[in-house]
Design brief:
Elements: E1 4-7, E2 15-23, E3 32-43, E4 46-62, H1 75-81, E5 92-106, E6 112-124, E7 129-140, E8 145-154, E9 159-169, E10 173-183, E11 189-191, E12 196-199
Antiparallel strand pairs: 1-2, 2-3, 3-4, 4-5, 5-6, 6-7, 7-8, 8-9, 9-10, 10-11, 10-12
Length: 203
């Protein structure tokens, strides 16, 4: 029998968040497990973003094996993003979303700012940083498209960061590089270590 549950999920920058999903038995490794998950996050009574995924598991004291040895952007950017705490070798409480993850982010008047697809998402519980991994594709309302295999989102600072190889497609060009940093509105973004640019011919 399916059981349906609505409860409060914690991201420190959001309030009054709601989640609905098909509740599953919890196994030995996780304290929450769900399928067909849809989560709506609100901030100050305004819809902030919606997350959809097929699978979710939450863990206490989870050991994430990470290799940050190939980071291709400078320390000043990492400091601004609050990235360095992720480099600490420690156990963390996390929720891991997998199998077709979709995030839709909205502005204060309810318009979509961007959406992100990825294979996996890690939410660091009680922190403000979300990590999206594998086949990450971000698209905003102006058809700005970012493709990478690793993207971090600071939901409190409203910043996006990738230290991995990136492909950026805009209306007039495609840019290849390693490292990307942007605000939510994509009015101020930086692409690092550019390795190639393809300009589209205009009519």
């Amino acid at each position: 029998m399916k059981k349906f549950l609505i409860f409060i999920f914690s991201l420190s920058s959001c309030l009054d968040n709601t989640i609905s999903y098909d509740f599953l038995n919890v196994d030995q490794n996780s304290f929450e497990k769900a399928k067909h998950l849809e989560m709506t996050f609100f901030s100050d009574g305004i819809k902030n973003f919606v997350l959809n995924t097929d699978n979710m598991q939450s863990f206490n004291n989870y050991a994430l094996k990470k290799d940050y040895s190939q980071i291709c952007i400078g320390d000043s950017i990492l400091n601004d993003f609050n990235f360095f705490y992720l480099l600490k070798d420690t156990l963390r409480s996390v929720s891991i979303f997998s199998d077709s993850v979709l995030i839709k982010n909205f502005n204060n008047i309810g318009d979509s700012i961007f959406e992100i697809h990825s294979d996996e998402l890690i939410n660091y519980i009680n922190e403000e940083i979300v990590e999206l991994t594998n086949n990450v594709k971000l698209k905003n309302y102006e058809n700005f498209i970012l493709e990478t295999d690793k993207l971090f989102w600071n939901t409190e600072k409203k910043k996006l960061l990738s230290y991995d190889s990136v492909k950026i497609k805009s209306e007039d060009k495609i840019i290849y590089g390693c490292g990307f940093y942007s605000d939510h509105d994509f009015e101020n973004y930086k692409i690092f270590n550019i390795s190639g640019v393809i300009d589209f011919e205009s009519d």
